[in-house]
User: Fold these one by one.
Assistant:
Number 1:
Amino acid sequence: MTRYPAIFIGHGSPMQIPAGAPGTEFLQRLGRELGKPAAILIASAHWETEGPAVSGAEAPETIYDFGGFPPEFYRVRYPAPGAPDLAQRVADLLGNAGMPARIDPTQGLDHGSWVPLRLMYPDADVPVAQLALQHHLGPAHHLAMGRALAPLRDEGVLILGAGNLTHNLGDAFRRMREGPNAPTDAWARDFDRWVADAATAGKSEDLVQYRALAPHARMAHPRDEHYLPLLVAAGAGGDGAKGKRLNDEFLLGNLSQAAYAFDAPDKLAA
């Protein structure tokens, strides 16, 4: 592929790194199917700033922004090169769209970025820049950011939004006691299905208004930082771009790992 779709993925946790973990096979397969881009711009749910920002580190560090995991997960590294030139291009595109952006020369890759990238591109040989979220500016802002960045797709850049389609950690921690095969509740499936209907129909404005339109929106996202990367991807897909559903797994019962490719070629497998 020379023009990449804009993609939203469930980034998962370090527990997805071992072979056979839920979601691992999907991300590995997705990387193989997409092929190696010139660079990656990833909007992670775990980096928030006051105003638009992009990482410009030449050698971004691996950030262990999690707690309570086995010691070996704090020794994992993802030594991908940074993408300072891409960071400047991102800043220019956002600035031209009326969203002045700063370049952070020290920001590393948090687990919302390096966990999925380690599975998709294990050789860590693709330059990566990370895009920050501005939770307080709301969903429409993130759709607009994605639209402003859409030209990157014609420049060999893979735009990834990394979050989770449902993300209620209080519920997830409770369900952990039920084991890996905990059943998925109706509220999570209903919300997941509503997003699927809106995304596959290209109804990006409905996705923006999800708090008012989607069933169980507050239960699915007590805080919507893990939903906002979906809007970056939808915006980067282009006006009216339909999302192709690529994955429908759930972790810990109600944690959706759904993935979508916006403006995807037919050959990209669902």
Number 2:
Amino acid sequence: MSLLSFDDRDGFIWMDGAMAPWRDAQVHVLSHALHYASAVFEGERVYGGKIFKLTEHTERLRDSAALLDFELPYSVAEIDAACEALVAKNGIVDGYVRPIAWRGSGMMGVSAQNAGVHVAIAAWEWPSYFSPEARMKGLRMQVSDWRRPAPDTAPTASKAAGLYMICTLSKHKAEAAGYNDALMYDHRGLVAEATGANIFFLMGDKLHTPTPDCFLDGITRRTVIDLARREGIDVVERHIEPHEMAQASEAFLTGTAVEVTPISEIGDYRFTPGQLSQTLMGAYDAEVRRSDDLTALISTSAA
């Protein structure tokens, strides 16, 4: 199956305050971000034409930029409005939104105070990150050779482009070996996250998830923790040693792209996607659709 290149599509991209035809949204080759990774981004899902937790994502974009020592030239409200306008203009019903902010070409060198800051937003129709078959069977994962860096070596609380280089390397190696993804340990050798998603384990009757002290505390992660607690499930955030995975009966990933996706294996450890995974998959699906249902109900009542 051939895939449509992301630089050759119909539609529009919001760029520096205006809607640009998709193919015209270009960046200069001497942009600072291309050479020095001075870029931050977000990944957001559209359900029924509405962006889930849009403002939380935009606030994190702003905070990530601040951690990389630059300020967005637009307010959170302005970026929220641009995201919503773009989704409407491109006619996206169920899809993905990618805001990104980066330093431009005003300076070339490590120092970049006057490089200029740009913001762009793209949105496209996008199905589930993993196929339905893979989701139902549970993902097969290997353990990455790369580790998440310590917070005193990189701005680990940001969603910065440069932090994903080792994620790409890890995922490529996993896929080449026939796996779906890779689990990354942190700088201490503790369980951290997958290449683009947080991880949870059912151990006994409690749900355990690594403390995000050197990797991103995902918005979907926090949503699923809230949903689990609503279901009466105890959630424990703590440091998890790799050997403790042997105690887990179920495991799953959470993220904007993967939503809630069960895991069947990580290296030598095996898990059985079960009732808890199914419950939280259903609860998450209901949560992301809930605001759309309320909007439809209000519209119908008003009519």
Number 3:
Amino acid sequence: MLALQILIDGFAISALYGLAAVGFTMIFGVSGVLNLAHGGIMLVAALIGWFVASSFDTGPFLGAAVGILAGLGMAYLTYFVVVRPIQRSRILPAAEHEIFILTGTLLWGIMIQVLMNYLFTDNPVTMRPMFPGVVYLLGVRTPRNEIMIAAICWAVIGLLWLLVNRTRAGKQLLAASINPRGLTLLGFELSSIYLLVWTIYGLLAGLAGVLLASFLGVGSANAGQLTASAFSIVVLGGLGSVSGSLVAAYVVGYLETITAYLIAPTLRPIPALLLLVLVVYVRPQGLLGRR
């Protein structure tokens, strides 16, 4: 029975991790940006969604919608206030843009965390379940909300796959990740493509944030942990590899779930971090990465 519980809980947690990491991966794959404010953006979506749903009695769905829009807005702020000015700077050496973006987004994420702590609380909060009730899967009592969150995550990932592989805009994103200079020579504007990928990223991060608030709960102190988790998954799967990030999300999700159930919840991040160190030494490009 415990094994089935781990299997079910691990699947739901891993699906949520995968959704959060896919946007993080797309940003790097298309624009070469490692956004270390990722956890802060998820945090904004989660806390604002929770606040709207609980303070105005709007219900979890409207609260989640407002939270997603808040995450999108914070993603835009991150791009236009931090990332884009550095990318277009003529003062900073081009070779040092990446390190300045890393530093800038890291500091930006810390500022977001402090602001959320000031406006709300550092105590974990949980949004009311969007899908109340319980069901029994193979005899295991499971919250219906947990099952539906996993289903939503995979439905969104499926829609993202259709967008990238079956639409003109998606093919431009793929081309930008492979050869941005060639795409420019063909007459496409990279700035509009970057804006599109940041829009997709903001929606994914916002959705992951509100689902996290509905599933496990979240507080301002979780911002750094959320960024570290997404970063670990992306590096483990391979920088820029969406499929690698999904595989890594399930590896990390199940490692954490097994550790929480069999050892201690406080130690759940440790095995995944140890695996990350091992992969960096043995296969630096990640599980499915090529560079």
